[in-house]
Amino acid sequence: MFLALSEAIRQVRQEGVSVRKTGVRTAGANGPQAVSLEVHPLQTAGMEGRWLLIFFENGQRSDDLPAPQQATLGTLLMQTLRQQLGRRIAAKGADPRDDEIARLNAELGAMRTQMRTMLEEHESAREELKSSEEELLSSNEEFQSTNEELETAKEELQSLNEELLTTNDELRYRNRELRTVHDEVTSARDYADAIIETMSEPLLVLQPDLRVTRANRAFYETFRTTADVTIGTLLYTLGNGQWNIPSLRELLETILPQQAIVRDFPISHDFPRIGPRTMRLNAARVVVPAHELILMTIEDVTQHQLAVERLQAADRHKDEFLAMLGHELRNPLAAVGNGLEIWGRADVEKETQDLARAAATRQLHHEIGLVNDLLDVSRVTRGIIKLSIAPVDLVQIVQQSVTVLHAEVQGHQHELVLSLPTQPILIDGDAMRLEQVVTNLLSNAIKYTRAGGRIRISLMAESGEAVLTVTDNGIGMTADFLPNIFTIFVQAECTLDRKSAGLGLGLALVQQLVEMHHGTVRASSEGLGQGSVFVVRLPISNAQTLSSPKQDPAEDASVSGAPKNILVVDDNTDAAESTAMVLRLDGHDVKVAIDGTSALQVAADSRPDVVLLDIGLPDMNGYEICHQLRTMPECAGTLLIALSGYAGEEYRERARQAGFHHYMVKPADLSELNRIMTSSCVTPKGADKES
User: In the list 141, 579, 609, 651, which could disulfide-bond 646, CB 3.0-4.6 Å?
Assistant: First the structure.
């Protein structure tokens, strides 16, 4: 208690106000108890210093004490004050001022009343505190009840949270599934879009009412339209009604409703922007949730159809060509066969034999010409003809061609008019091939001009070009036929008598040879019965003079020359023997072999001066035989000549590589063969030449 009292006194002296300490623990007769104390400052007139009034209160309230005890306490308090005051007065001497004492007694009574009031207020506060404590306890019970309810709600929330977590896991799983499905659908959509957009064929997706809901890029590019004017538009009104096609209506309104898929449905239509088109449509009805779609692809087969028509025309021309070829080859053979039959009879007059021989010779040359045309077309088409380019006079070439065909012109009783310049017109070209061009054009005019007709050939220089024009008043050509006039195997219509005979090769060969000379050829006609005009343009050469022709060392030599020891090798016995007979007529010593083994043996025994060697032999080919002959000492100075039916440049080149000195194509020109044998001089290593 001392510590609490000292602290209270110190606080009153510092602050000058009353201080109350409660709950001070002290030991009493009945054991430990709690007391309260209050310290009040006391200052009165006539009293020096500061007085302190201290009240002690035990745990029992003063109101609970009996009235005698309360009176005794008051009395004790007043006695104590009087004693203290009496001592102070006695010490100072008697103070006559009793009024002051009375006043102090009054103040003390007022103070006592104030203290009682304070105690009552204190007690009231304690009652209120107790009531508040009871309310607090009640509230605590309510709080406990609420807490229990909250715990229950918490448990319910935890249970609900667990359910929500489970549901959330399921939702996440479903979300992953949906995302996977979405990715798959997106990928499938992108894949389908990529397929649709990369398709080379136009594609349309139509609603059941035939409105366009989708089109790919190929459709826009092919039909020259845009998505703005296509999507949502009725198909029949698209492009100002250009898709309002009866056959398309039949497909979409009649056929497709009865069939799920329609393939290769043909449609032909002339579109304003892209022209005539032949199309193949493929359509399908596709049922999707809630509605139906129509897929339609459009395949433009115009070029394919044209190619098919061209192939069919080419096949027809081929069949016509083969029929004509059979006719053209049989006619000369008939004349040759008849001539042989006439020669075989002893009772035939010499004049008749001469006529038969002349006819057979003409037909043989004609047959050779046909074969040569076939070979030339084949070589030109494959690009294996090599031109011997040199400055040549085109005027001279035209004159030579007219001379060659003069008899044929006379035979058809045609009037031939020439309009040629007096000065040479030089061009860089192959003289033989250019003569072939002029000859074929003139032959064409002769064949397709009726007897007594008129043919005109003119040549002039114009704007750096040589212009050759061949005009006739023959059967003419239709406008449809003109674009195909230079196509191989194509001929104008002719009658069964085949008076206008031919294979349809001449003009095709003319065009190819002219183009190889960097020129052009054009044909025109006013129509059937109006004649035809062919114009050839060739660039004029910059050369001032013709190249000097090489002097042939054998030009002045005898046709046959000195007799030679000759070996003929051919698996065709008739061809080998007939060649041998002709050579023997010129005084040559000729031996025959029909295969490679016997040829090598005969060559080793007879040491031939010349070997005429076929290429296609049964046991070994001519190239192998030639290679072995070149290694034999007995044939060191032998002239090796290939005599073959193979006319291609590749065969000539292979012959040179094998060691042949010359290459001749069957049937060989005997005068040319004699010239080669006469003019050639072979050293032990040989000299590579070619015919």
Answer: 651
Considering only CA atoms, which of 403, 392, 385 is closest in space to residue 428?
Answer: 392
- Whether residues 512 and 611 fall in one domain: no
Return averaged pLDDT per consecutive 10 residues of the chain, 691 residues in all.
80 80 75 79 60 67 49 52 56 62 80 84 86 86 87 89 90 91 87 83 89 89 88 88 88 87 89 87 83 87 85 76 64 73 77 79 73 68 72 92 84 90 91 88 89 92 93 89 75 46 70 91 90 94 64 42 87 84 87 90 91 87 91 89 79 88 84 82 46 44
* All residues at 6 or more sequence positions from 317 whose CB lies less than 8 Å from its CB, including other chains: 487, 488, 489, 490, 504
Cα dihedral angle (191, 196, 201, 204), rounded to 10 degrees? 150
Full residue range of the structural domain in which residue 320 is found: 309-378
d(CA 9, CA 7): 6
Q: What is the CATH number of the domain that holds 657?
A: 3.40.50.2300
- Look up the pTM and report it: 0.46
Backbone angles phi, psi at 188, to 5 degrees: -65, -40
Same domain, yes or no, for 425 and 531?
A: yes
Beta bridge pairs of residue 429: 390
Compute the half-sphere exposure of residue 399: CA atoms within 13 Å on the CB side of its CA. 10
For the chain, the domain total comes to: 5
Largest distance between two CA atoms of the chain:
219
Cβ(37)–Cβ(57) under 8 Å? yes
The CA distance from 105 to 149, in Å, is 64
Q: How far apart are CA 302 and CA 270, in angstroms?
A: 11
The span from the CA of 572 to the CA of 473, in Å, is 48
Residue 175 CB contacts under 8 Å (≥ 6 apart), including other chains:
none
End-to-end distance of the chain based on CA atoms, in angstroms?
A: 156
Report CA dihedral (103, 109, 111, 113) to the nearest 10 degrees. -150
Same domain, 30 and 108: yes
HSE-CB for 523 with a 13 A CA cutoff: 23
In a domain, 642, yes or no: yes
Token representation of residue 116? 């009682």
- Same-domain check for residues 604 and 649: yes
Say whether both 514 and 392 belong to one domain. Answer: yes
DSSP strand pairing (415-419 vs 610-613): unpaired
